[in-house]
Design brief:
- By secondary structure, the chain is of the alpha+beta class.
- It has three helices and two strands; from the N terminus they run αβαβα.
- It has a two-stranded parallel ribbon.
- It is globular.
């Protein structure tokens, strides 16, 4: 677990950099449970602080069907 911490930090920094540079509207999806609502709230607060345009949605269950993202991000980008 500790050996993956460096990877987590580097990917988090890359994701933050991508979000910081992005000028379009950001879509945020969260799951309707305690940790999903909490994580979505933290992300929304961060986006508000950075004055980013976003749309947030809490879903009962996260599935490929209800996410239907038009331009998915490849894991290799993060």
């Amino acid at each position: 677990m500790v050996e993956n911490f460096g990877l987590l930090v580097s990917r988090s920094k890359k994701a933050a950099s991508l979000l910081s540079a992005y000028a379009g509207q950001i879509r945020v999806f969260g799951q309707y449970d305690a940790d999903g609502i909490t994580a979505t709230s933290i992300l929304i607060k961060t986006l508000l602080r950075e004055a980013k345009s976003f749309h947030a949605r809490i879903l009962k269950q996260l599935t490929e069907n209800n996410l239907s993202i038009s331009s998915p991000i490849d894991d290799s980008e993060i």
